[in-house]
Inverse folding.
């Protein structure tokens, strides 16, 4: 059974803290994605990666960075958390071609 | 630029009745179209996709979707709704050279 796991379901941080969100997939997928989900806005792509050590900006990369040192792991980093980054963060992975994406359960991040 | 519209924020259907969740899109070239579902407090799950071939696509949980090229639509349908179908549904188109984008979502309420 395919699986995408995220390091935390719930996270509370303070403004200015550095935050790491980790995502691991066990499907040997090339592609990995980070989204944020906000009510009424749907899913917005933050960053994605097509291969190890590769990264591409999505639609809303400002205030975020990513790291992909191993194929199975894709980390999202908030260098200095702000209250407007309070959101649900979803990680996904997919194979090549037009494969569907497999999503993790999400991390609900609250920045105080 | 590609775009997607889910014109209804919420759809209410009585259990046992047919349901339709609407989606229209704008992409350059041939579209590749996906539907995802998010059950309460869960990550997104893939429902079905259209890549090529038959315009009527069948997916998980008895759902199907019809690709209509002239109307640029990909409406999600089910002949007989179940209370357990209550969830948030996302339409997600992409074209060959671009990223997938997600609609804002339609909340489906199935009334017992």
């Amino acid at each position: 059974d395919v699986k995408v796991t995220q390091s935390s379901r719930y996270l509370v941080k303070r403004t200015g803290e550095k935050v790491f969100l980790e995502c691991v997939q066990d499907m040997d997928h090339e592609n990995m994605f980070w989204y944020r989900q906000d009510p009424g806005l749907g899913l917005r792509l933050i960053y994605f990666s097509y291969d190890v050590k590769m990264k591409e900006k999505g639609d809303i990369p400002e205030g975020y960075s990513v790291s992909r040192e191993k194929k199975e792991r894709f980390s999202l980093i908030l260098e200095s958390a702000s209250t407007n980054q309070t959101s649900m963060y979803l990680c996904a992975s997919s194979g090549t071609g037009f494969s569907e994406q497999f999503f993790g359960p999400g991390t609900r991040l609250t920045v105080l | 630029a590609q775009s997607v519209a889910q014109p209804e924020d919420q759809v209410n259907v009585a259990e046992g009745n047919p349901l339709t969740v609407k989606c229209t899109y704008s992409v350059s070239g041939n579209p590749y179209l996906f539907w995802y579902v998010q059950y309460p407090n869960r990550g997104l799950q893939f429902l079905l996709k259209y890549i090529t071939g038959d315009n009527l696509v069948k997916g998980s949980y008895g759902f199907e979707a019809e690709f209509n090229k002239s109307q640029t639509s990909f409406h999600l349908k089910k002949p007989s709704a179940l209370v357990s179908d209550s969830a948030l549904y996302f339409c997600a188109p992409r074209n060959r050279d671009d990223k997938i984008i997600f609609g804002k979502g339609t909340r489906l309420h199935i009334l017992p």
